[in-house]
Amino acid sequence: MAKIRSARVIVCSPGRNFVTLKIETEDGLTGLGDATLNGRELSVASYLTDHVIPCLIGRDAHQIEDIWQYLYRGAYWRRGPVTMSAIAAVDTALWDIKGKVAGLPVYQLLGGACREGVMVYGHANGATVEETVAEAMKYKAEGYKAIRLQSGVPGLASTYGVSKDKKFYEPADADLPTENVWSTPKYMRSVPELFAKAREALGWDVHLLHDVHHRLTPIEAGRLGKDLEPYRPFWLEDAVAAENQAGFRTIRQHTTTPLAVGEVFNTIWDAKQLIEEQLIDYIRMTVVHGGGITHLRRVASLADLNHVRTGCHGATDLSPVCMAAALHFDISVPNFGVQEYMLHTKETDKVFPHAYTFKDGMLHPGEAPGLGVEIDEDLAAKYPYRRAYLPVNRLEDGSMTNW
Ligand code: EZ4
Ligand code: CO
To answer: Is 384 part of a structural domain of the chain?
Structure first.
C-alpha cells in the first residue's frame, strides 16, 4: 500500500505553457504526470484540481488500473481531450511512483527493453525547399536516422511546421489565434519537389517524413501519396482529419505511401476502425493525450494485431515528463515504429531535469527509478502561465478550414 497523501497541479511557462500533476504518497514518494493540452491548459488544470484530485486522496497509488477505470468509467461523461489528458497525468504519475518504489525505471515494469534505443525523427524546416534541405543536411550530420521535412509553399505567407526559430517550433504563438491562409493546389505542387530535392541531397539511407496537418480530402491525400511514392517516404502524417475513419479507405486504395495518424486522438475508440481495417501504418497517439501509459499500451496491443506500429507525437507542447513516459513505452513495446523528437528550450530542460539522453539518432530513457524526470518548482514559479493559442486557418476566399 502506498497511500496518496496529496496531489497538486503546477502550471508554468518556461518558453511555452506546461501543466504538470504531482502526486505524493504518505511515505513521501512523488510521481509526475504531464497534463498539457496546447491552448487549453487551464481547462485540464481545473479538471484535475476541481474534480480528480479530491477523489485520489487516500487511494493506493499501486492500483494503477483500478484508478484508471475509476476516473474513466466513474466520470460518466467519457473521453474527450480534457478528460483524457487529466486521466493520463494521474496514470503517468502513478507509474512514476511504482517505479520509484520498485527501484526500477518504468520500462522494466513494462516488460523490459526490447530494443537498444528509440529511433527519433528531427524537424527540418525552411521558407524554401533549398533552406529545408540545408536544415535536413544538418540533422543528418548530427546522426539522425529520420527527418521530417516541412517547407514554405510559394504563394502562401505562412504554413504549418515552418518557423523563424528553426529548432524550437512553437505554433501557439499569440494570445489570440493568428490567422493563416491555405491553398491546397499550391501545397500539392510544392511537396513532391521538396522530396525530390531532399533525396538528391540526402541519399536513400535516411528516413524522410512529412506532416500534412489535416489539410487534405481523402482523394487529394491519395494523389499526394502517389506523387511521393518515388521518394519512398517513411510516412505521410495526418493527411486527412480523421473524425470519419472510413475516409482513409479512399487514401489506401490509391497509394502505397505509409500513413500515420492520431496525435489528436484521445482513446482507442478514435483509432479502432483505422487499426482494425488496417487503413494506417503508424498510430500517433502519445501518453499525455492518449489516456496515459495504461491506455496507450492497450492501443499498441490492438495495433500490433493489425500490422500497425507506434509513432508517438513528440512536439514541444508535450513536456519532458511526457517525453520520458513515451520513451519508457517506446523501448518496451514490441511494435514500436519511431518517436517524434523536437528539442525543448534550455529553460524547459532546466525546469524539468531528466535522465533521457540522445545518441546516434536514438533516445534512451535512462536507468533512474521511475520515469527519471523531476520538476524544479522554484524555477518553475519564475515562469508564470501566459495565454497562448494555436493558429486558425482559412482558404484564400476566407472560408475556415483545418489548421
Ligand atoms: O501541431 O503539437 O507532429 N506534430 C504536430 C505538432 C502539433 C502541435 C499542436 O499542439 O503536428 O506540431
Ligand atoms: Co503532426
So the answer is: no
Is 90 exceeded by the pLDDT of residue 35?
A: yes
Distance 222 CA to ligand 1 centre (A): 22
Check residue 169 and give its pLDDT: 77
The reported pLDDT for the residue numbered 173 is: 86
Residues 35, 171: Cα–Cα separation, whole Å = 18
Q: Do 219 and 197 belong to one domain?
A: yes
Angstrom distance (rounded) from CA 308 to CA 335: 7
pLDDT at residue 399 in the model: 98
- CATH number where 281 lies: 3.20.20.120
Average pLDDT, the chain: 97
Ligand 1, residues 19, 150, 235, 263: which to mutate, most atoms within 8 A of Cβ?
Answer: 263
Nearest CA to ligand 1 atom 1: 171
Q: Is 67 helix (H, G, I), strand (E, B) or coil?
A: helix
Q: Do residues 78 and 204 share a domain?
A: no
Q: Which atom belonging to ligand 1 lies closest to the Cα atom of 318? A: 2
Residue that is written with C-alpha cell 540522445 in the block: 358
Domain that holds residue 140: 109-367
In sequence order, what DSSP letters do the residues of 231-298 get, joined into one string?
G--SEEE--S--SSGGGHHHHHHH--S-EEE-TT--SGGGTHHHHHTT--SEE---TTTTTHHHHHHH
Nearest CA to ligand 1 atom 6: 315
Residue 21 has pLDDT above 90, yes or no: yes
Residue 392 phi/psi, 5-degree rounding, is -115, 170
Probe ligand 1: pick from 213, 284, 403, max atoms within 8 Å of CB?
Answer: 213
Q: What residue owns the CA closest to ligand 1's atom 5?
A: 315
Q: Could you give phi then psi for residue 333, rounded to 5 degrees?
A: -90, 135
**Ligand whose nearest atom lies closest to the CA of 316:** 1
Within this chain, do residues 115 and 84 fall inside the same structural domain, yes or no? Answer: no
Catalytic residues: 160, 213
